[in-house]
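User: Is it possible to get a 3D structure for a protein together with its bound compound? The compound here is nicotinamide-adenine-dinucleotide. I've pasted both below.
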Amino acid sequence: TFHVGFEPGHPLVRVRLGAGVLAEIGSEMAALGLSRALVLTTPEQAAQGEAILAQLGPRAHARFSRAAMHTPIEITEAAIAAAHGADCIVAIGGGSTIGLGKAIALRTDLPQIVLPTTYAGSEATPILGQTANGIKETLRSPKVQPEVILYDPELVATLPANLTVTSGLNAMAHAVEALYARDANPLSDQLALSGIRAFRDGLPQVVADPGNLDAREQTLFGSWLCGTVLGSVGMALHHKLCHTLGGSFDLPHAETHAILLPHSAAYNAEAAERELAPAAELFGGSIGGGLHDFAASLNAPLALRDIGLAESDLDRAADLAVKNPYWNPRPIERDAIRALLQSAWQGTRP
Ligand code: NAD
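Assistant: Yes, that's possible. Here is the predicted structure of the complex:
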């Protein structure tokens, strides 16, 4: 059990990592004086929510299983209605389910106990992305930071192979961008490098043997490291590109991160070679080519054309990506971004 300080004035986050912590939801609730949990899941994970209701017995208030990508406000409102009479949230799932818990907490201040089942890392950040009228906004508030995180490797052991790989690369992308963040510091550098190393070593093992709980624990620890660094320093080109492609072309979250990472890293390596060098070393010396080879070795999707983006969309994607200026180690130039997108669309090794 760890207690991690977050932001000044914010209570400590309690984190437990290890096989079997799933069974501790009730004792964590009791320790906080909580007795009526609203359990959140996606429709696909409703059975896992049902199992938690059974496990919690009288401490269960209800289950709400309509969590969805991008945290639509209508679903948050329906969940808040279902939360009437509950005194806490138990979210079991990936970034979408955890996002719903955060959106409820923002409006109700209900404490959150979260059980991550992907590597996306949302549980470790005070950041919420939510969608109203088709527009996604991202906000930062200590109110949305979950109070208790239970990382149980058995929960990621059920992740299908493709989501295991793309979600792991999604987590690594937080750490790669943290290395060249404008507000990077020696601690964030160490978190980022340890996170990248945990996935470089652990992902091939969990792909070869999905039920390897030691390797699942190593990768979940990587997810904690990468999520923590995502919440600590600013992100740049890679996250903005994924946000644009996800929001405007409805591309799937983890796959988009997985495909773009080698290309955004190669783009920024021209300006941040020194910052990226320790990560490049982990992948044979070249960050872009090395990450591409790593992804290919795990059978990750490598080309945007394979996840539903049309080549005729690339011009508009490039226009959108350069529309709102933001800080990046290398200047954001339209022609260079258009070339990056072409490579990512084709799946060319950068
Ligand atoms: P997700 O939560 O959308 O899950 C994808 C699908 O996989 C769902 O159907 C889900 O039910 C299923 N699934 C999840 N875990 C499973 C398991 N162990 N076994 C079987 N099926 C499982 O995917 P995600 O990539 O974790 O989350 C993406 C969302 O999270 C995006 O909206 C993204 O913006 C957000 N996010 C937010 C933050 C933040 O800090 N706010 C960080 C990372 C991601």
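The CA atoms of residues 14 and 221 lie 14 Å apart. The mean pLDDT is 96.
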